[in-house]
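tool=predict chain=A
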Amino acid sequence: MSIATLAFWLAVAFVAYTYVGYPLIVRLLAGRGDEPAPPQPASWPSVTVVVAVHDEASRIPRKLESLRAQDYPGLVTLLFVSDGSTDGTEALLRTQPDVRTFAYAPRRGKPAALNAAMAEVDTELVVFTDVRQPLEASAIRRLVARLLQPGVGAVSGELIHVEPGNRVAASVGLYWRYEKAIRKAESRIASTVGVTGALYCIRSADFEPLAPDTLLDDLIVPMRIARRGKRVLLEPGAILYDELQTETAGERKRKVRTLTGNFQAIASEPWLLSPTANPLFVQFVSHKLFRLFVPYAIVVAFVAALAADGAFYHAMAAIQAALLLGALGGLASARLRAQRLFGFLAVFAELNFAAVLALREFVAGRMDARWEKT
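tool=predict ok
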């Protein structure tokens, strides 16, 4: 076997394992069905709901309506942290008698807001949620019931996207459903890697202050908890709703930030790459790390196919070139993008291009925790 042939098959195997093999393995190990519903506790602990906001005056009323409609049997405290808002957010919050408000300036970013909030929390449990997404009335109750099970340290809610408005959104939605299926399977086996940042619940005592430049609290916080031997679960019944990105540029910006955060997490928490220190090592490497290098494996497979001898490998190179042209066509033309195949190829190309951009952002040190809305 020539070097080019070996490189081709190694690259193909890497991509196949990352996007097909690992998801299939965890799905088979998880079996069928959902996690059994947890028992309802005899008494419900007090909960603080933390919402970090920056210039969100227009969204706060709907979020408050959603939080006030929760059917949680215990005491719920609402704590909003205004991170350098300038649009009247703080003034609006201070008119709400059932809301504790903490505000500061200038803007520092979400990790600083969460650190500030946790210094104010005096309840046993804390729920982190974002202002944009409304919750089902049972969301907090379901999170807490799952968290109170023995050995559980963090519980994620389930993000449901509303009906997509175009083919780009539909393709992103398909990818999100694929991602959620992996998380559900991981949760059933042992623990999922990370949580949904828009809604998750932990014990207050398990929170460790975040570095001010942290991009992914929804990865760092649960992985630190998992390191202490506690499970990180997904609760499918704790539902919140959001709208999909309808443009590839917005999805690219979001994905670049997420993948840059993965690079940052590896650099700031090197124990994540240790099989002995990280109890979720296999899941983390297979689910998070390998995806960062898929675009380079695709390039290796293409170049190796061109260099290898034989009509089969040249045909493989031609197929890859055709798929790339299809992706570029989908990115360039809204008409093509409206077709299922071209829309899917465009989104897949964007996701892998985002991984390349993320590495560039990380190496250049351009990691601003002050997230700009898309």
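The chain is about 50% helix and 15% strand. The chain has a mean pLDDT of 90.
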